[in-house]
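> example.struct
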């Protein structure tokens, strides 16, 4: 498989995972206003943490002194980027759904 096809497959897999998280967050957020608020806050924090870590780790790549440090930074960068992507997808999924039960008790 050439690099372009690998890139397309990677983007497709990331898109499918983001769609799955988007739908799941929407279903859970429809349970009650409390669940929706919890999902919104938790995924806003996860998204910001993922974005900050991604940017900080990208800056630290130039300071890597050995190959092992470089590999560790790149793996952490991929994990932080995934956290940001999935956090944003879940946040959007919860933000577009409206809870069926508005009393806030989650039942």
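> example.seq
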């Amino acid at each position: 498989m050439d690099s372009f096809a690998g890139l397309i497959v990677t983007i497709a897999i990331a898109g499918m995972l983001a769609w799955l998280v988007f739908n799941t967050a929407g279903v859970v957020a429809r349970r009650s206003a409390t669940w929706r608020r919890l999902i919104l806050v938790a995924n806003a924090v996860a998204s910001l943490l993922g974005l900050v870590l991604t940017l900080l780790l990208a800056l630290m790549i130039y300071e890597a002194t050995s190959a092992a440090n470089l590999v560790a930074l790149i793996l952490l960068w991929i994990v932080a980027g995934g956290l940001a992507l999935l956090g944003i997808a879940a946040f959007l999924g919860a933000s577009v759904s409206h809870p069926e039960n508005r009393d806030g008790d989650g039942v």
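> remarks
Residues 67-96 form the longest helix (30 residues).
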